[in-house]
Write a structure and sequence with these properties.
The complex is a heterodimer of chains A (172) and B (181). With 172 residues, chain A is mainly alpha-helical. Chain A is built from eleven helices and no strands. The chains are: A mainly alpha (172), B mainly alpha (181). Chains A and B meet through helix 1, helix 2 and helix 3 of A and helix 2, helix 3, helix 6 and helix 9 of B.
Chain lengths: 172, 181
């Protein structure tokens, strides 16, 4: 054992130093002598052999294969891009609606969507929610009658056209 | 005693004849590399596989060898990496085995027909087997191969300070393990 290693161990590990660093292992007989066999297992790319006339026949094989191949429909790159873009848009829209329906609507909300509007009115009427059904049955004219004394839409336009600022000054 | 060739001579021989030069390289390094790997993986059969993988890598990559470093540190580095990879695979396999007995430390050493150590050496080997992979490499390279920290730093790509600390930790662990037996 080297002096410096021994000195290191004397301080740190005296028991280990006592055991020493002799090799406790051994190898089968003639192991190292036969180790060169490893070399024979290494595939050397530069010396790998190929069948005779391989390159001479390669071109013929490729041509024959090319001729016998089924005709392929060629889609231009431009068309492919449009198809890809359209697919992405369709997927996005479908995902948006699916997610909205599934994630943001409660069960009650999705149920209401399936109910006809008349059925909803009937339901509200049955529940004594008469206010809503009555209001929804009123005509536009009824609304104006109900709001007598107040000005709405056409009335305001009329007054603005017909009454000048001078008239207003007089009124005030 | 084998005649020692310099790195330049070995590389020159490889340039002249790849196979012939490689044989010279193997003659020079096969034994120290085998023992380094053997101490890492313990069993002869495993060591034999890892040695072959190591030299196949050396053979295939010899053109990539950077002549600024020493040839032996480069080969040791490959051997260490191959050993660590092997140990990782074995550990994974061991964890997948139901009882893990097949790869237990006791089994590995007691059933090894090529282990000649006495009782104290057996305890020492058991202690080394418990070390983490890289710490085991550092301990073996220093304790058995007596390699300088500087060369080890080149081999393992770790600073000398970190290697000293790692060796110190390993020695302390082993000393404690031996004392407990």
């Amino acid at each position: 054992m080297k002096k410096e290693i021994r000195e290191e161990l004397e301080k740190m590990a005296p028991t280990l130093l006592e055991i020493g660093n002799q090799n406790p292992y051994r190898v089968p007989p003639m192991y190292f002598e036969n180790m060169e066999i490893v070399l024979n297992n290494v595939p050397d790319v530069s010396q790998q052999s190929i069948p005779n006339n391989y390159f001479e026949n390669l071109a013929n094989k490729v041509v024959i294969k090319a001729k016998t191949k089924k005709p392929v429909r060629i889609i231009s790159l431009h068309a492919k891009r449009w198809m890809a873009a359209a697919s992405i848009v369709i997927i996005c829209v479908a995902s948006y609606f699916t997610m909205n329906t599934n994630d943001t609507m409660s069960d009650n909300q999705s149920f209401v969507l399936d109910v006809e509007i008349e059925e909803a009115f009937d339901y509200l009427a049955d529940q004594d929610e008469l206010y809503f059904s009555e209001v929804l049955e009123l005509s536009d004219g009824d609304f104006f009658e109900e709001t007598e004394g107040e000005l709405y839409g056409d009335d305001i336009d009329f007054l603005l056209d017909e009454v000048t600022l001078d008239d207003l000054d007089e009124l005030l | 005693m084998k005649p020692q060739l310099t790195d330049e001579q070995i590389l020159e021989l490889i340039q002249l004849s790849r196979d012939g030069g490689f044989r010279s390289l193997m003659h020079q390094f096969q034994e120290p590399i085998y023992w380094h790997i053997r101490r890492m993986v313990t069993s002869h059969d495993d060591a034999n596989d890892v040695v072959q993988d190591t030299f196949i890598k050396v053979y295939k990559n010899i053109e990539k060898f950077n002549k600024d470093s020493k040839l032996y540190t480069w080969i040791y580095r490959i051997a260490t990496n191959e050993s660590l990879t092997f140990l990782k695979k074995r550990k994974k396999k061991q964890s997948e085995t139901i009882d893990g007995d097949e790869y237990s430390l006791e089994n590995m050493l007691s059933s090894d027909p090529y282990f000649d150590g006495n009782a104290a050496e057996l305890v020492l080997q058991e202690a080394i087997l418990l070390l983490p992979g890289k710490q085991k490499a550092v301990f073996n390279l220093r304790y058995y191969d007596e390699i300088s920290y500087r060369d080890m730093s080149e081999m393992l790509g770790t600073s000398v300070g970190a290697l000293k600390a790692s060796y110190h930790h390993a020695v302390k662990k082993i000393e404690d393990f031996i004392k407990r037996q």
